[in-house]
Design brief:
- The complex is a heterodimer of chains A (about 240) and B (about 575).
- Chain A is about 30% helix and about 15% strand.
- Chain A contains nine helices and seven strands, in the order ββαβββββαααααααα.
- In chain A, a hairpin with a 2-residue loop joins strand 6 and strand 7.
- The model of chain A has no long low-confidence stretch (mean pLDDT about 95).
- Chain B is about 35% helix and about 20% strand.
- In chain B, helix 1 packs parallel to helix 4.
- Classes of the chains: A alpha+beta (about 240), B alpha/beta (about 575).
C-alpha cells in the first residue's frame, strides 16, 4: 500500500519558521512507522533528521507525535493508520534541534533532580540485600521506564506549567521511594512535596494512555501524593 | 576543538560504564557515546546475567566455567573463562548493591532461572544460573550504571561519533570525533583509550541488533592496523520474531517454552536429547535451519513455532512481559494462547579486537599496544570461543569492563602525554568534505542492503567455500561502489545521512574480515558451520584466527588456544 506522510521540518540554524513536508512511500501493513521514515530518508530525502536505535521499543530514542499522539515510531504499525495521512511531529514542549530531534537535557535534568539511584547508609552485606517478592513487586511496573519522554510530551499540565517536573521524573521518584532497599525514603518524599513537584498532576491520564511500556503513571503519581500525606503529617501546605 | 582528558572511553553500554566507574575520580575521564545516554544496545539484553550463586539450586563456578568452554566449542581460552565464572557472583552482588531491581526468590534472594547451555554436573541437566529482572535485565542494569556514573560526576559527551583512532609510533595519542548536534569535528587528546563500542550485527539483514551496532571501534582499530580475532564466529540467536529479527529471549525456553515444527513436534529432542530446547544457541539455530531446509517449517515456510501457551498468563506477566508485549505489538499474537513464529536472527559477534583478559589490546606479536584497551562485544578476549552462552554477555561486560578500568589505572602511572601528529583531524575532515562535495552517486542505503543480502544468503548459519567466495566477491564489489556514495544532507545539525555513509565503510570492512576468516576455517565449530567440512577438526583448527589489514587486503593468521583444565571432547547436549 502507499502511505502519505506529512513531516515537521525545522532547522533552527537556517529556517525562520517550521514547515511540513509531504512524502509518499510504499509500505506493508505490518511494517513500523519507523520503517517508513527510514525508507523516506534512505531513498527520497537524506536531509530528514530523527533519532532511532533499537527499533523495538527498548532504547526509547524515537518518541515523537504521530497524528497528535506521543508514541514510539518503532512501536506503531502502518496498519493502524490505514487510509489515513500520517503526520509526524516532534514531542511537544521540547526544544526542536532539527526536524523530529529534540533537546532532551531538561527532561533528563528533571529525572536527575530526584536522584535516580539507590541511596543506602548501611554497608552492603557480603551477598545480596534481601528483598521480599512483595517488596520487589511494588516497583515491578515502574522499572519498565525507558526514558522515551512520551508521557512528559503528552502531559497537558506541562503546557500550562513548564516548571512542573513532569510524569517521567515522578515515575523515577516512585521507583526509589518504594524500593525497600533505599534508606532515604522520608527525604525523597519531602523533596517531592513542593508546588512544581508531585502536586500539579490533576489526573488527565494522558501519560498513562501514551506510555509505550504500559506503566500506570497517573496511579503512581497518586500513590506518591497519598504516601506524602500519610507519612509527612506535620508538613506545611 | 581540542579536548584533553587522561582517559577516553568510547561507548556508554555496560562495558564502557563499568570501566568508567573504575577510572573516574582517580583520573580525568570522559565517556563518548554515539547515541544519547541510555540508548546503548546493552539495554536490549533481556534474559539475565549468569552467576553460580546457587540461590535456587546447587551450583559451582567450575560448572559455569566448563559450560562456557563447551558452549564455545573448546576454542574459548580457559584461563579467561575461569576469571569470568569465578568473578561472576561478586559482579552480580555489586550490581544488586547499586540498586539493580532483580526478581527475587521466596527467601528474598536474587531469583535465578535456566538458560541455554548452562548445566549442573558438567552437562547432566539444565541449572538455574541466570539472575534476571523480568525480561528487561539489560535495560535496568544500563540505567542503574548510567545514573551511578552521573552520581559520581562522570563527564559524558553524548551523540559524539568516533571517526578515527589517532596513533603515533605504535601507541595511542587520541581520537577524532564528530559532534552530531553541531557537525563539528573534534580531537580528543588523551593518554588512554578504551574501546567499548559494541557489536556489528548490522552486517546482516535480519538481526536483533540496533541501528547503532555498526562496529565503529572494531573497524577503526582494524584500519589502524590492529588485529581482529575469531571474526568468523557470528552468533545467530534461535528465536527472532519472524521477519523482524526482534529478539525473543532464551528465557522463554528457560521458563519452559518449547520449539515446534510444522507437525507440532518438539524437534529439539532429536538434536539435543539431554537438554533439548536449552542447548547452546548455535545448536538450536542449526536445528531450526535444518527443519526449515527439510520442509518442516510452518506450512513449508522459513520459520518454526515457539510455544509458550502452557506457561500461563501469570508467569508471562511476571517473567516475560516485554516479549509478550513485542509479539502482541508486532504480530498481534497473544503468547498465552497462540504460537509465536520465530527464525534465527544475527545476535552477537564472538570476534572482535584482540585483547587480553586485562583488557589491553594486543598486536600481532601479542604485545600490548600502549594506551589502547577494549571491553565488551567489540573485544575478543577469547572468552566466548566459537559460540557465546546466553547471559554470559552482560557478565562479560561488567567483569571485563571493570578489569579494563583497573588496567588503565595501573598503566596511567607510566603512560606519558605524547604530542599528537600534525593535523590529526585532517584525514577525517577531508573524508567528510569529499562526501559532501560529490554531487551525484550511489545511495548508501542501497549498498548497505546489498551487503546485508549477500552476507545473510552466503555467510549465515550454513556456509560453503562457494557461498563464502560469492560473498567475498560481492562485498568487494560493494566496497568499490561505496567509494562513489553521495549524500543528500549537506547540513551540520544532526546529519545522520553523513554518519550512515561513513558507517557503511565500517560495515563493509568488517563483512570482508568475517568472510575471509570463515574461508580460512575449513572445519565446523560452534557458530561456524561449513557444509563442505561438517566435522570439528581439532588437529588442524583448535586455534584462533587473526586478521590484519594490509595494503594487499586482509591477512589471516592463527594463534593457539589456552587449555588449562578441560581437554576438548565431542560436544553434545
Amino acid at each position: 500500500m502507499e502511505m502519505k506522510f506529512k513531516i515537521f521540518r525545522f532547522d533552527p540554524e537556517v529556517d525562520e519558521e517550521p514547515r511540513y513536508q509531504e512524502y509518499r512511500v510504499a509500505a506493508d501493513p505490518a511494517e513500523r512507522i519507523l520503517d517508513c521514515l527510514n525508507r523516506i530518508k534512505w531513498e527520497q530525502d537524506g536531509t530528514l533528521s530523527y533519532r532511532m536505535s533499537c527499533a523495538h521499543g527498548v532504547c526509547g530514542s524515537d518518541g515523537m507525535r504521530i497524528n497528535g499522539t506521543c508514541a514510539l515510531a518503532c512501536q506503531k504499525l502502518v496498519r493502524e493508520y490505514a487510509d489515513a495521512e500520517v503526520t509526524l511531529e516532534p514531542l511537544p514542549f521540547f526544544r526542536v534541534l532539527k526536524d523530529l530531534t529534540v533537546d532532551m537535557n531538561a527532561f533528563l535534568e528533571g529525572i536527575l533532580y530526584f536522584r535516580p539511584w539507590l541511596i543506602t547508609l548501611s554497608d552492603p552485606p557480603e551477598q545480596e540485600r534481601l528483598q521480599s517478592q512483595e517488596e520487589a513487586k511494588r516497583v515491578e511496573e515502574v522499572i519498565r521506564c525507558i526514558l522515551c519522554a512520551c508521557c512528559t510530551g503528552a502531559c497537558p499540565v506541562m503546557s500550562e506549567n513548564p516548571n512542573y517536573v513532569g510524569p517521567a521524573a515522578l515515575v523515577w521518584a516512585f521507583r526509589h521511594v518504594f524500593d525497600s532497599r533505599d534508606e532515604k525514603r522520608i527525604e525523597r518524599l519531602n523533596q517531592l512535596d513542593f508546588p512544581d513537584g508531585v502536586w500539579p498532576c490533576v489526573n488527565h491520564f494522558e501519560c498513562t494512555r501514551v506510555c509505550p511500556k504500559k506503566i500506570p503513571v497517573t496511579k503512581c503519581i497518586n500513590t506518591l501524593k497519598r504516601e506524602i500525606e500519610k507519612t509527612l503529617p506535620g508538613r506545611s501546605q | 576543538m581540542i579536548f584533553k582528558h587522561d582517559v577516553i572511553i568510547v561507548g556508554a553500554g555496560l562495558a564502557g560504564l563499568r570501566a568508567a566507574m573504575e577510572v573516574a575520580g582517580a583520573a580525568d575521564t570522559a565517556l563518548l557515546s554515539k547515541v544519547y545516554p541510555t540508548r546503548s544496545h546493552s539495554g536490549a539484553a533481556q534474559g539475565g546475567i549468569a552467576a553460580a550463586l546457587g540461590n535456587e539450586e546447587e551450583d559451582f563456578w567450575e560448572w559455569h566455567m566448563y559450560d562456557t568452554i563447551k558452549g564455545g566449542d573448546y576454542v574459548a581460552d580457559q584461563d579467561v573463562a575461569e576469571i569470568l565464572a569465578k568473578d561472576a557472583p561478586r559482579a552480580v552482588y555489586e550490581l544488586e548493591h547499586m540498586g539493580v531491581p532483580f526478581n527475587r526468590t521466596p527467601e528474598g534472594k536474587i531469583a535465578q532461572r535456566a538458560f541455554g547451555g548452562h548445566t549442573r554436573g558438567f552437562g547432566k541437566a539444565p541449572v538455574k544460573r541466570a539472575c534476571y529482572a523480568a525480561d528487561r535485565s539489560g535495560r535496568v542494569i544500563l540505567d542503574t550504571l548510567y545514573f551511578e556514573g552521573v552520581r559520581k560526576g562522570l563527564k559524558i559527551y553524548p551523540e559524539f561519533h568516533m571517526l578515527d583512532l589517532v596513533m603515533k609510533d605504535n601507541r595511542v595519542v587520541g581520537l577524532v570525533a564528530y559532534e552530531l548536534a553541531t557537525g563539528e569535528v573534534h580531537f580528543f587528546h588523551c593518554r588512554a583509550v578504551l574501546l567499548a563500542t559494541g557489536g556489528y550485527g548490522k552486517v546482516f539483514k535480519t538481526t536483533s541488533n540496533a541501528f547503532a551496532s555498526t562496529g565503529d571501534g572494531v573497524f577503526l582499530a582494524y584500519r589502524a592496523g590492529i588485529p581482529l580475532e575469531d571474526m568468523e564466529f557470528v552468533q545467530f540467536h534461535p528465536t527472532g520474531i519472524y521477519g523482524l529479527g526482534v529478539l525473543i529471549s532464551e528465557a522463554a525456553r528457560g521458563e519452559g517454552g518449547i520449539l515446534r515444527n510444522h507437525q507440532g513436534e518438539r524437534f529439539m529432542e532429536r538434536y539435543a536429547p539431554t537438554i533439548k530446547d536449552l542447548a547452546a544457541r548455535d545448536v538450536v539455530s542449526r536445528a531450526i535451519a535444518t527443519e526449515i531446509l527439510e520442509g518442516r517449517g510452518i506450512n513449508g515456510r522459513d520459520y518454526v513455532h515457539l510455544d509458550l501457551t502452557h506457561l500461563g498468563e501469570k508467569k508471562l506477566a511476571e517473567k516475560l512481559s516485554d516479549i509478550t508485549s513485542f509479539v502482541k505489538i508486532y504480530l498481534g499474537i497473544d503468547a498465552a494462547t497462540e504460537l509465536i513464529p520465530v527464525a534465527p536472527t544475527c545476535h552477537y559477534m564472538m570476534g572482535g579486537i584482540q585483547a587480553g583478559s586485562h583488557g589491553r589490546v594486543l598486536d600481532t606479536e601479542q604485545n600490548p599496544i600502549p594506551g589502547l584497551y577494549a571491553a565488551g562485544e567489540c573485544s575478543c578476549l577469547s572468552l566466548h570461543g566459537a559460540n557465546r552462552l546466553g547471559c554470559n554477555s552482560l557478565l562479560d561486560l561488567v567483569v571485563f569492563g571493570r578489569r579494563a578500568g583497573t588496567s588503565i589505572l595501573q598503566d596511567l602511572k607510566h603512560l606519558s602525554w605524547d604530542d599528537p601528529p600534525a593535523h590529526p583531524m585532517k584525514e577525517v575532515q577531508d573524508r567528510i568534505r569529499s562526501l559532501k562535495e560529490r554531487k551525484s552517486g550511489e545511495k548508501h542505503g542501497r549498498i548497505r542492503s546489498a551487503m546485508q543480502e549477500t552476507m545473510t544468503r552466503n555467510c549465515s548459519i550454513f556456509r560453503t567455500e562457494q557461498s563464502l567466495s560469492q560473498a567475498l566477491a560481492e562485498v568487494r564489489a560493494l566496497k568499490q561502489q561505496a567509494g562513489r556514495v553521495a549524500i543528500d544532507n549537506l547540513g551540520t545539525r544532526f546529519n545522520t545521512d553523513l554518519l550512515e555513509a561513513l558507517e557503511l565503510e565500517y560495515l563493509l570492512g568488517l563483512a570482508e574480515t568475517i568472510v575471509v576468516s570463515a574461508l580460512g576455517r575449513k572445519e565446523s565449530r560452534g557458530a561456524h558451520f561449513r557444509d563442505d567440512y561438517p566435522e570439528r577438526n581439532d588437529d588442524d583448527y583448535l586455534k584462533h584466527t587473526l586478521v590484519q589489514r594490509t595494503d594487499d587486503g586482509p591477512q589471516v593468521s592463527t594463534k593457539p588456544v589456552t587449555i588449562t583444565i578441560y581437554p576438548p571432547k565431542p560436544r553434545t547436549y
